[in-house]
Amino acid sequence: ITDFGIGNGISIIIFGGIIARIPSQIVQTFKLLQVGEIGILPLTSLLLISVVVIGGVIAIQKGQRRIPVQYAKRVIGRRMYGGQGTHIPLRVNQAGVIPIIFASAILLFPATIAQFFQNLAFMKSMSEALSPGQPLYLILYAVLIIVFTYFYTAITFNPANMADNMKKYGGFIPGIRPGKNTTVYIDHIMTRITLSGALFLAVIAILAIS
C-alpha cells in the first residue's frame, strides 16, 4: 500500500479495522438510547468530543513546520541557475501510529507473563496494575509513546543528510551557515515539533482506552 503511493499502509489497515466496527457500535448505541441506559445529553457530548478529537488528529497529521531555503545563483555556461526560494516541510507527527503500536506491544508482554503466575501475589498485583485503563498503565503508555515517537523519528529523519544535500546543491537557510550549523538548526526545530506531536499522540491514545 505504501509502495504504490496510496498512503501509509499500516495506518490504512488499522483504519479499516476501526471502520469495520463502526456500524455495530452505532446499532448498539441506539439500542442503549432506546432502553434509557444512555441519555441524549451524554450522547451529544460524546459526539461533540469525537468531532473535536478527529479534527485535532487531522490538524496534527497535516501540520508541518516549513523552514525557508534559498538557493544561490550559479552561472553554468551562458545560463544562470538557482536564486530560487523553497522550503523544507517538517511534519509534526513524523512517526505516525508506529509509537502507539510499539507501546501497546511492550505493555502487553509483562501483563501476559504475569497471568501465568497468578498464584504469586506480586505477579497478580502487576497484572492488575498493567491492565488497560489503570493509572500505572496509562502513565507507562504515555511515556512509551513519547519515547518511541522520538526514537522512530530519529531513525527515519536524518538532518545531517538533509543539510549535506542542501549544501551540495547550493541551498542554505537564511541566517544559518551551511553544514554543521544547518544540521543543528534542523535537528533543534524537529525536536521541538516532535514533542508537540508526541504529547498529542499520547493524549489521543489515552482517550481511546479511558
From TrEMBL:
PANTHER family cross-referenced by the UniProt entry: SECY/SEC61-ALPHA FAMILY MEMBER (PTHR10906)
Quote a single Gene Ontology cellular component term: membrane
Q: What is this protein called?
A: Preprotein translocase subunit SecY
GO biological process: any one?
A: protein transport
Q: Answer yes or no on keyword Transmembrane helix.
A: yes
Q: Which Pfam families match?
A: SecY
Under the heading InterPro entries, the entry gives:
SecY/SEC61-alpha (IPR002208), SecY_dom_sf (IPR023201)
What span is annotated as the signal peptide, if there is one? none
Alphabetically ordered keywords of this record:
Membrane, Transmembrane, Transmembrane helix
Q: Does the keyword Hydrolase apply?
A: no
Q: Where are the transmembrane segments?
A: 40-60, 97-117, 137-157, 189-209
What organism does the record attribute this protein to?
A: marine sediment metagenome
- Which Gene3D superfamilies does the protein's record reference? SecY subunit domain
